[in-house]
Amino acid sequence: MNFLDSIFIRLRQSASAPVLVEIHEAGTLPATGGELLSLVAQGRAFLAARGLKRGDRCALLAPNSIRWVALDLALTAEGIIVVPLYSRQAPHELVVMMKDASPARIFCADAPSAAEIQKLWPAAPPITLLDAVFVPMEKYAADDAAREANAGSSVQSLHLADSDPVTIIYTSGTSGEAKGVVLTAGNVGFMLGCTNTRLDELMALSGAPKDGPDRIFQYGPFSLAASWMLLLTALSRRSVLYLSTNVSMLSHEIKVAAPNYFLNVPLVLERVRAKVEEMIRKRGKLAATVFTRAQSAYRRRFEKGAAGAGAAWLALANFAMFPSIRKGIGPNLKALICGSAPLSVETQLFYGMLGIPVLQAYGLTETTAICTLDDPANPVPSCVGLAVPGVEMKVGENSEILVRGPNVFPGYWNRPHETAQVLRDGWFHTGDQGEMDSGGHWRITGRIKNLLVLSSGHNVAPEPLEDALAASLPEAQHVVLIGNQRASLAALVTPAAANGLQEAAVQSAINAMNAELPHYKRIRAFRILPEAFSVEDGLLTMNGKLKRAEIASRFASAIDALYATPAEPKAGKASA
Asked: Kind and range of the H or E element at 69?
């Protein structure tokens, strides 16, 4: 039995219970297991009628929705390789990926997206809107008999061998053109066993009722490997997955979902932390004092094993302050799961202090999203957890993390040379730098390709310095260190809000940080850019990582100006 058959069986067991819920401003749109299977049956019938066959590739360009899930399952059940694409990505980048994947058909959420693709790629294959694949949910939701009949026809998928490819997910492309990562049924099946085991441990540890389904919230796009794996995990266990449809209403959506856990990127957790701390400050001096002293005591407990003299303040905050903050973030939260980039120790301790553990995960698309997962009983701040059982990890040359196991992909789509570069001697070379402590917990320290090589010969990993500066500047959204082949380091800083970042504050934070650094790691100049980077302007990947090469190219003149007089640190705002 393959992973898809297991999902279909689970959906049939939940034929009359909701398994997916879309959250909209006007209300929610649920789908039971039976309704989802009926949609899958409609999708499979559509695919068969168009002559699509096993081994074909089909692009899926749409935001998260119940119908996205149904079509993904339908395509996989027919043996068709799904190429999921991020709906907010620049159209010209999407077309490059589509041309590389050479799909037999493209599925789009709306007519404007289809028209833009056709404009940029006149020779594109047939483009089909999701509305043409599925009848409105209300038409079949009211007919229980028809739904049950359709559900029965969807329970079996075509036979999937472990080696059969099921998806091609394009990498973020932080340093160049995105590559298509091929993942197999064996990759996915293995990883679902790992994620389900960890979630079982989490729910058992939290004391959650065993007879109720997990409540899960999802805002990350399913075109990302980690988000897709969470989706498949949710469908393979007894759960209800609530889908965000408007990230600008995230706080409202989380309240509606009231989840037990959900997947996050560090940026979102840091924003929530900043809002809570701002709210505390606005309550007045007494509240701010209690919170600050409790926070110091909790940090002391982490570092020294005891809260010391601040234990009373921590006890007071636990009694009078933290319960209401926890309720505001999520009354049913058992844990927050975080991936895509290392989370700052301060932010992880902040949530731990509130009684909401943050479980970190590390992985790449090439490792089916996951290599390590935090143990729910023992998350270690600053680390990203232990290697999942069955996965081997070690440190290679230049502190590079090497991985092998059933989670490692077979190769890049149509790129044998690039595949051979990263798959060597049975190990996948991640390009990430890291280290493992005596307890087996992994820490990510940087990325090899991001290393800045100064003209002095010193090598500097930018991430730790960027994280440290950003942590001391809550008004900043992004910090990018530059200096490759230059005499010294400089920084580009973007504001979190319009006019919310002052030069004096940046200079003060840099001065404080420089005082603790060796000479070659000191930041000698900076520029405040007009606005934060975004996916839409092409400066962030779809999971929020910096596109460093594009940033360096876009702001080349501002960077050159920083080094115009290297002996004198320069500061100020720059335009794009």
From this structure: helix 66-77
At the fourth CATH level, which superfamily is domain 3-183? Answer: ANL, N-terminal domain (3.40.50.12780)
Hey, what are 92's tokens?
A: 């010209």
Compute, in degrees rounded to 10, the torsion defined by CA atoms 475, 478, 483, 484.
Answer: 170
Closest C-alpha among 492, 480, 481, 497 to residue 557: 492
Least confident of 254-263, 372-381, 567-576: 567-576
- For 25-35, b/e burial (b = at least 16 CB within 10 A) is eeeebbbbbbb
- Taking the C-alpha atoms of residue 435 and residue 290, their distance in angstroms, rounded to an integer, is 37
The alpha carbon of residue 569 and the mean position of all alpha carbons in its chain are separated, in whole angstroms, by 36
Beta strands 261-264 and 336-338 are: parallel
pLDDT over 90 (residue 154): no
Name the E strands within 91-211: 105-108, 127-129, 165-170, 180-184
**Alpha carbon separation from 326 to 213, 261, 350, 353, 462 (Å, rounded):** 21, 13, 11, 10, 34
Q: What is the dihedral of CA 35, 38, 40, 46, to 10 degrees?
A: -140
CATH class of 451-562: alpha beta
Tens digits of residue pLDDT in 521-563: 999 999 999 888 988 888 888 767 888 888 988 999 989 999 8
Amino acid making up residue 452: L
**CATH topology identical between 3-183 and 266-331+335-448:** yes
Number of H helices, E strands in the chain: 21, 26
Q: For 266-331+335-448, CATH number?
A: 3.40.50.12780
Quick one: CA dihedral 49, 55, 56, 61, positive or negative?
positive
Sequence spans of domains, the chain: 3-183, 266-331+335-448, 451-562
Closest C-alpha among 350, 357, 356, 355 to residue 291:
350
